[in-house]
Amino acid sequence: MEKTWRWFGPNDVIALNDLRQIGVEGIVTALHHIPNGDIWPVGEIRKRKAIIASAGLRWSVVESLPVSEEIKLASPASARHLENYRISLKNLAAEGIRTVCYNFMPVIDWIRTDLYRENPDGTRSLYFDYARFAYFDRYILQRKNATDDYPAPILERTETIHSTIKEEEKEELIHNIIVKTQGFVSGNISEKDKEPVALFRKMLSRYEGMHQEDLRDHFRRFMETVAPVAAENNVNLCIHPDDPPFPVLGLPRIVTGREDVDWLLKAVDVFQNGLTFCAGSLSSGIHNNVPELAKRFAPRTHFVHLRSTEVFQNRDFMEADHLSGRGHLAEVIRIFLEEQKRRLREGMDSWRIPMRPDHGPLMLSDIDNDRYNPGYSFYGRMKALSELSGMMAAVESVNP
Ligand code: DNO
After folding, report:
1. Which atom of ligand 1 is the closest one to the Cα of 185?
2. How far is Cα 150 from Cα 132, in angstroms, rounded to an integer?
3. Residue among 8, 28, 62, 64 to mutate when testing ligand 1 (max atoms within 8 A of CB)
4. CATH numbers and ranges of domains, the chain
5. Is 379 a catalytic residue?
6. Which ligand 1 atom is at minimum distance from the Cα of 376?
7. Which of 139, 210, 214, 256 is the most buried (most CB within 10 A)?
């Protein structure tokens, strides 16, 4: 598999030259400065590609070419955004960039309540605390009917939290869920927004009354429009699973597990309509058996995120070590190495599947600085990349 690394562009504190030293071959990045829904012009793509090439690396994957809320809502403005998406795909293909990751989650790109939960060994990890999330939903957002969405023991815990939580902890929760995790990836919310809760409520309200079938219809419309351009230009689109892969905030979900992926791959049944196999996101749904899903969807997987989680009985989950947890990454790697062999045997051009270490613990001297996007510090990901490289080498030596 091709070893890639998510790099956030020229403002990223991690230098491309350092990445070469730790075994990275390809870069995963996006033109984060272009607003969602706008065209990615060839000139901008070329500029970014040149920066990456000057460090001896290649731009392997786009993560993400954002699908705007207008498209997910199929609003009147979506026609222009769909056309722009088609043009951006053509522009990327013209520059030889042919793997494009995106997600189709309404409003929120991913959710964690805690960004620095301390582990027994002194490292820090991302954490999803179900009761704290329910508290946020019920008491901070004050979402209508929120109480209907949680089991009684969780609701009880939200009451305890409510009577003991301090103002600064509330602020931190808002910052973590709405601002910090979203700001650098989704383009919907930025660190500069003064009233994130009000803005967030407004964004959620646009989806009121929207059900899974509606979101599926909108996805089908999106894919039917962009897949022909992808096919003509040899661009592999790969949808990222919902994170977490279960219902949140009354929003409809699109990729939570096997049934959803079966549906969406069939909705427009072409190779270019594929999957980003995010072992981490999928593993945080207790209903998902990650290796089983990897086997089933390998033929339509264009990009792999290697990360693992541990899920607790109360539905909290934490990001696990890359060597442990529900991601079963050694097994997942074995499955994708087999898939590569199959593609080679069949003479496919795109036989080499890019993978990246996804997230990593905050550790060593990285703990003392907050320059990193949550989950994307240096040492933790470097350690993960080394562990994953070791697993790949071991699997290959047993089964060349
Ligand atoms: C967070 C990531 C997501 C993911 C996007 C893909 O770390 O898993 O931001 O990249 O959802 O569109």
Report:
1. 9
2. 12
3. 64
4. 2-110+210-398 (3.20.20.150), 114-205 (no CATH)
5. no
6. 7
7. 256
Question: Using an 8 Å Cβ cutoff, are 113 and 173 in contact?
Answer: yes
Q: How many CB atoms lie within 10 A of CB 271?
A: 17
Residue 44 has pLDDT above 90, yes or no: yes
**CA of residue 55 to ligand 1 center, whole Å:** 25
pLDDT band at 225 (very low <50, low <70, confident <90, very high): very high
Clarify whether 305 is annotated catalytic.
yes
322 included as an active-site residue: no
Distance from the alpha carbon of residue 104 to the mean position of ligand 1, in angstroms? 11
Q: What is the CA 392 to chain-centroid distance, rounded? A: 22
Residue that has been written with the tokens 């549906």 in this structure: 263
Q: What's the order of all strands across the beta sheet hosting 114-118?
A: 114-118, 124-128, 317-320, 308-311
CA distance 277 to 289: 13
What does the pLDDT look like over 339-375, one tens digit per residue? Answer: 999 999 999 988 999 999 999 999 999 998 778 999 9
| 399: pLDDT strictly greater than 90 | no
Residues whose CB is less than 8 angstroms from the CB of residue 262 and which lie 6 or more positions away in sequence, other chains included:
none
Q: What atom in ligand 1 is closest to the CA of residue 375?
A: 7
Residue 400 has pLDDT above 90, yes or no: no
* CB 241 within 8 Å of CB 254: no
DSSP states along 232-279: HTT-EEEEPPPSSSS--TT---S-SSHHHHHHHHHHT-STTEEEEEEH
Cα–ligand 1 centroid distance for 378 (angstroms): 17
Our answer to whether residue 358 is catalytic in this structure is yes
* C-beta 185 within 6 A of ligand 1: yes
Q: Is the CB of 109 under 6 A from ligand 1?
A: yes
Query: Which of 137, 260, 358, 366 does the annotation list as catalytic?
Result: 358
DSSP per-residue letters across 381-392? HHHHHHHHHHHH
Per residue in 244-279, pLDDT (tens digit) is 999 999 999 999 999 999 999 999 999 999 999 999
**Sequence-ordered strand ranges (E) for 7-95:** 26-29, 58-63
Q: What are the E-state strand segments in the chain? A: 2-6, 26-29, 58-63, 99-102, 114-118, 124-128, 236-239, 273-278, 301-306, 308-311, 317-320, 354-357
pLDDT at 184: 75
Q: Which of 127, 243, 278, 372 is catalytic?
A: 278
